[in-house]
Amino acid sequence: xxxxxxxxxxxxxxxxxxxxxxxxxAADQELLGAGATFPQPLYSKMFDAYNNxxxxxxxxxxxxxxxxxxxLIKKTVDFGGTxxxxxxxxxxxxxxxxLHIPTCLGAVVVTYNLPGNPKLNFTPDLIxxxxxxxxxxxxDPRIAAVNPNVKLPDLPIIVVNRADGxxxxxxxxxxxxKVSAEWKEKIGTGxxxxxxxxxxxxxxxxxxxxxxxQTPGAVGYVELxxxxxxxxxxxxxxxxxxxxxxPTIKAVSAAANIRIxxxxxxxxxxxxxxxxxxxxxxxxLIFYKEQNYGNRNAxxxxxxxxxxxxxxxxxxxxxxxxQYAPLSKEAAAKSVKLIRSVTYNGxxxxx
Amino acid sequence: xxxxxxxxxxxxxxxxFAKILAISAVLIACxxxxxxxxxxxxxxxxxxxxxxxxxxGKTWDSASEQFGALPFLAGTLLTxxxxxxxxxxxxxxxxxxxxxYFKEGAASTFLRSSVEVLAGIPSVIYGLWGLFLLMPMVxxxxxxxxVPPHGVGIFTSALILAIMVIPFSASIGxxxxxxxxxxxxxxxxxxxxxxxxxxxxxxxxYARSGIIAGILLxxxxxxxxxxxVTMLIGNSNFIPTSIFSPAxxxxxxxxxEFAEATGLVSSSLIYIxxxxxxxxxxxxxxxxxxxxxxxxxxxxxxx
Amino acid sequence: xxxxxRARLVKNHIFKGxxxxxxxISLLPLLLILYYITKNGISVINWDFLTHLPxxxxxxxxxxxxxxxxxxxxxxxxxxxSIPFGIIAGIYLxxxxEGKLxxxxxxxVIVLQGTPSIVIGIIAYVWIVxxxxxxxxxxxxxxxxxxxxxxxxxxxxxxxxxxxxxLKEASLALGVPYHKTxxxxxxxxxxxxxLTGILLSVARITGETAxxxxxxxxxxxxxxxxxxxxxxxxxxxxxxxMSPYPEWHTFAxxxxxxxxVLTLALNLIARGxxxxxxxxx
Lengths: 351, 303, 281
Fold this sequence. Notes:
The structure holds 3 protein chains of 3 kinds.
Chain A: H1 2-24, E1 30-35, H2 40-54, E2 57-62, H3 65-73, E3 79-82, H4 88-94, E4 98-112, E5 121-122, H5 124-131, H6 141-146, E6 158-162, H7 167-179, H8 181-186, E7 200-202, H9 204-214, E8 218-223, H10 224-229, E9 233-234, E10 236-238, E11 244-245, H11 249-255, E12 280-288, H12 298-312, H13 329-340, E13 343-344, E14 347-348
Parallel strand pairs in A: 1-2, 1-3, 5-10, 6-7, 6-8
Antiparallel strand pairs in A: 3-12, 4-8, 4-9, 4-12, 10-11, 13-14
Chain B: H1 9-50, E1 60-61, E2 66-67, H2 70-101, H3 106-120, H4 123-145, H5 154-178, H6 182-190, H7 195-224, H8 227-232, H9 250-257, H10 263-302
Antiparallel strand pairs in B: 1-2
Helix pairs in contact in B: 1-10, 2-5, 2-7, 3-5, 4-5, 5-7, 6-7, 7-10, 9-10
Chain C: H1 2-25, H2 28-41, H3 47-51, H4 65-95, H5 100-114, H6 117-132, H7 137-162, H8 165-173, H9 178-189, H10 191-206, H11 233-241, H12 246-276
Helix pairs in contact in C: 2-12, 4-7, 4-10, 4-11, 5-7, 6-7, 7-10, 8-9, 10-12, 11-12
């Protein structure tokens, strides 16, 4: 009896100390974020640097944009990451005003695993038909027609899509909706789609990249960096102006060279820019404008605001080395303005 | 405990002790009840919207908020049954080996501890191993057969599940085989029966219901297995068309989608969890009941 | 007649051969798994791997220190919740062999043991994560402790049942109160069995991943606060296994090696305890 009692008491003490510890250790702040895997390599680098410099741990878990939005709505995270602007329904579910700030730009590339890793060119229709499983062999004459100099093997095409609710999927499908009437009618735009049967689903950008890398004949869509870091082949895409564009920082920045609205909700896919890569996008961090909710203390809110501000200013130096495109001056300025509008009890957090 | 007229301190602590014991027992029952209730309450929106039709609905589409669990039911049943079919010869062989041929000795100790180690390996490591060894192997088979060489899918998951349930059903099988009364076996031997004949005509028929119960319990295991399957199933929300097609099981779809699910999706996933809970509950109760009955009968025959 | 007997003997031998063949074929996966884990895992294990935190994605180096400490913390947390509770419930069952409540509790234990781990993950999310509004080590620990409970209850009950009745009678005859008899006489004599049960249940939960997906969540930093998300070895393995980075694949094998050694050690210790400390009656 005594033993059992003492164990229970110890348990209780541990619990109490943990709750108390939460207050005592306020100096050792830890922020929790979750969401998009599209910018995750950049975020993990940024947060590593941020922890080294400011001793604030920012724990970011790549669970997909859908997960990021949902966990923000459920208020289990301090901020979410998403590559798709929250929908009206989602904003309504959130209950309070949610702000979006862009952190960088990236490209969604079509990556594939073929013998010899040839560089392929894709037209919009070709991408749509491959991902609708209408073209099922790499040896299909339509692929050969735009790639006359490449010897294509007669492998079956294994299409890989995202099993989780994904901002990368959103960007990709938004592009295909713009360029293909059939895609628009059959599949449409969204974070989770009704893919044709027989395709493989994988979790997160890493999951798709991992599977494509391991499977000859597979084709998927991931953020550019994942393909680069893993030395995977990825295709050039023909843009609206009829140019074949290789996905690079420059081509993404070219696509982003447009006016940005105050809420930063802008789509860059199927860009008009002649040198712009057509499947580019901003990626956003999302958080509540009023930070006093769910027992959050002012220190935590301040730590969040400071961290966000750092990401769109000083933190931008980590963007280019990782092959993402940095924010333009205009976009950065708008982000800073949004971050400065964040309040705690109605008072702005940052002066 | 009988109560005296005047309660001494000992009596009071006595009563308190008995109370604590009883309360903890009640709490265990409450825990299970609370689990069931939580699942039920959380899945109510989905139950109200889709009702029983949920299990024949073929589409799982969050865009149009149409949710049907048939693809996952099919995926779960296919992988589990395929895994059982693959595993049965092996688990029965191990049961006979350990329960009849080599009850003691080095070979038996080796096999038994190996099977125990196999049972102790975490699911995620099976998944990892499947990803880097089974997947390429399955791809070779698929290429030979001329089906799209996904590498992942029902077949790969069933293979890994089979490996995972063998130790489980084998240990139950061994137990029920050792429960076969030795006077029955000895009687048969004294009539000149060979070991094979004793196995075929005495042991297996006698232990049949126990072996079946063991298989049933392994089925319960296979149905609920999550990680290894999630890593190897291919995550496709469609009714599988062949044993090589990618699919999703009830457990794997929860693992994939629960973190991002809101509203009706979340509720539908919990509805699936509720069904998973009820099915495994049923399977476990039946399996354990059969095995208990056998061991009680066996102990009666000894006395 | 001769031929008939020979045929029967031949059949007998063939069957024995088949049984042995199948039994040993089923060891093949085990050998392969252990071979792969050792081959790929042991080469990455060094001091750095054990004592460093993970590096940012795509950068070389780093280790799994946070995952190791996280796993230990989760184990401690789940033990704190499940051991007292499990032992007390086990005593109840062994002391009340008949009765409606006992059979109900036994049924519950069976059902709990068979409940899929992912379902328990959902439960911990709904019960702990959603109300506390944060993923946490606590929620992971509770999910795992629900998985430990049935094993502990069952082994406690079975161990205590085996303790001879005269021990209890002797104690009671000396005027020792009932509860002291249980705590001071019966429980200590069953200690080895109970300890074995605890170790086995810990071995069972150490490798669990599914219930941690939406509870402990993962954390690339070190964390000691039970109200914050925490990393764990199985979660790291899952995360690394599904990634495209070859170095992370080797890390997954390395982490698997640690995990397998850990679970095997627990199993071995459990067996050692049950053999060495066993009180003979």
